[in-house]
Design a protein that fits this description.
Layout lengths: L5 H8 L3 E5 L1 H4 L13 H8 L6 H12 L3 H10 L3 H12 L7 H9 L3 E4 L5 H8 L7 E5 L5 H5 L4 E5 L14 H10 L1 H13 L1 E5 L6 H13 L6 E6 L5 H11 L1 E6 L5 H23 L1
Parallel strand pairs: 1-2, 1-5, 2-4, 3-4, 5-6, 6-7
Helix pairs in contact: 1-14, 3-5, 4-5, 7-14, 11-12
């Protein structure tokens, strides 16, 4: 079991923790056919079938094996029919996936800001449909100029950092799309950096391969207070120890490892929720 840091629990209770959820969270969901949204590696392996040139396909598959995902996807995008590519994206992410237990526990932890690089709409659908008189939510993406104003409001925010399947043309997926987004929407990335500077980030189900996010965290590490860590949940033994050391030194990200498999993540987040609820209850009794 994860020995959850008391400082992280306190940050969540005080509303100073931002959740960053990745494809590992969506992977817990199922549709009517028991299919789950694809993770990065699975998506790319399936997408490589869109490339008809056998030699190029072999090279792309090698890039996927080497986990050079952005380069691989750019190559797929450049060497397949665009109509087929858009159809593949839609079929992969625009399904009626049902929220999993993990989504419900994340919701109940009640972070005011949740950032996601997922294209599906699973978590936001849960937030809008949750029974009872819960807090109001707004969903905004990297094209919005209202992010700073929304942060200063009482509204819960879901930030689609890479866009969503609702607007395929604005999805950030390839290297060229990353560069275009940074060039056309620098305001968003400056506000995102401010969020990282002033909050504790908990990465859930993220591989931490996103170059934009890691560059922002590197800047935050340089200019911010390194005594307060960000946290990433990882499967024990899944990450190279030198990579883990680099995360703490370069990005100030401390890893919290769970075991024995990815399914244990649900149990660990449930345990975190119980600890957070206990502290919230204790806080109420002292007021």
């Amino acid at each position: 079991m994860i020995d959850w840091p008391s400082s992280l629990i306190n940050e969540i209770v005080k509303g100073r923790c931002v959740f960053f959820i990745g494809s590992g969270v969506s992977a817990n969901s199922k549709d009517a056919n028991s299919d789950s949204p694809p993770t990065w590696g699975t998506f790319l392996s399936m997408a490589s079938a869109l490339v008809s040139d056998k030699n190029k396909k072999v090279q792309i598959e090698k890039l996927i094996e080497e986990k050079k995902f952005l380069v691989a996807l750019q190559a797929i995008n450049d060497n397949c029919d665009q109509a087929d590519y858009y159809s593949f994206l839609n079929n992969s992410f625009n399904k009626n996936y049902q929220p999993s237990e993990l989504h419900h526990y994340i919701y109940k932890l009640d972070a005011r800001i949740v950032i996601t690089t997922n294209f599906d709409k699973i978590y936001q659908s849960l937030c809008y449909s949750y029974p009872g008189s819960g807090p109001a939510f707004k969903v905004i993406d990297y094209t919005s100029y209202d992010l700073a104003d929304e942060i200063r409001s009482d509204t819960r925010l879901i930030i689609n950092a890479h866009g969503s399947i609702n607007n395929i043309s604005n999805m950030i997926f390839t290297k060229s799309e990353y560069h275009k987004a940074k060039r056309n929407h620098p305001y968003f990335y400056e506000v995102l950096k401010a969020i990282f500077l002033t909050n504790t980030i908990l990465f859930i189900g993220c591989g931490l391969e996103d170059p934009d996010i890691m560059l922002l965290l590197e800047d935050v590490k340089i200019y911010g207070n390194s005594n307060k860590h960000h946290y990433a949940l990882t499967l024990k033994g899944d990450k190279n120890e030198f990579l883990i050391n680099d995360w703490i030194k370069t990005y100030n990200i401390r890893t919290l490892e769970y075991e024995p498999n990815h399914g244990a993540l649900v149990t660990e987040i449930k345990n975190l929720l119980e600890l957070v609820d206990e502290e919230r209850a204790a806080l109420v009794t002292t007021i």
